[in-house]
């Protein structure tokens, strides 16, 4: 199981990984921060990047904050970092 810290930027033109910000990854989301839409898009996008089903991704901290901690089952920290680094280029 891997944990990932992300700083989200909602209402972007498209969902994309925008690089690193200290220990966190910057994540642009194409959803507004209304009715949990940005959180749903965050889970969907991270599941796609990690190559796991959406049911294996959950936000464990920061549901109403831009800084979130996301837990991903079925992938190790090293695998996740490799995939994110490749996607962030």
Structure description:
With 89 residues, the protein is an alpha+beta fold. The protein has a single domain (2-87), classed as YggU-like (Conserved Hypothetical Protein Mth637, Chain: A), CATH 3.30.1200.10. It has helices at 37-50, 77-87, and strands spanning 2-9, 16-21, 24-28, 57-61, 67-72. A five-stranded mixed beta sheet has the order 2-3-1-5-4. A hairpin with a 2-residue loop joins strand 2 (16-21) and strand 3. It is globular. The N and C termini lie far apart (24 Å). The mean pLDDT is 93.
- Termini, distance in Å? 24 Å
Order of strands across the widest beta sheet?
A: 2-3-1-5-4
CATH topology: Conserved Hypothetical Protein Mth637, Chain: A
| Succession of helices and strands | EEEHEEH
β-sheet strand percentage: 25-35%
Q: Descriptors for this entry?
A:
globular, single chain, alpha+beta, 89 residues, 5 strands, Conserved Hypothetical Protein Mth637, Chain: A
Task: Summarize the model shown.
The chain has helices at 37-50, 77-87, and strands at 2-9, 16-21, 24-28, 57-61, 67-72. The chain is an alpha+beta fold. It has a five-stranded mixed β-sheet with strand order 2-3-1-5-4.
Strand-helix topology:
Blueprint: E1 2-9, E2 16-21, E3 24-28, H1 37-50, E4 57-61, E5 67-72, H2 77-87
Parallel strand pairs: 1-3
Antiparallel strand pairs: 1-5, 2-3, 4-5
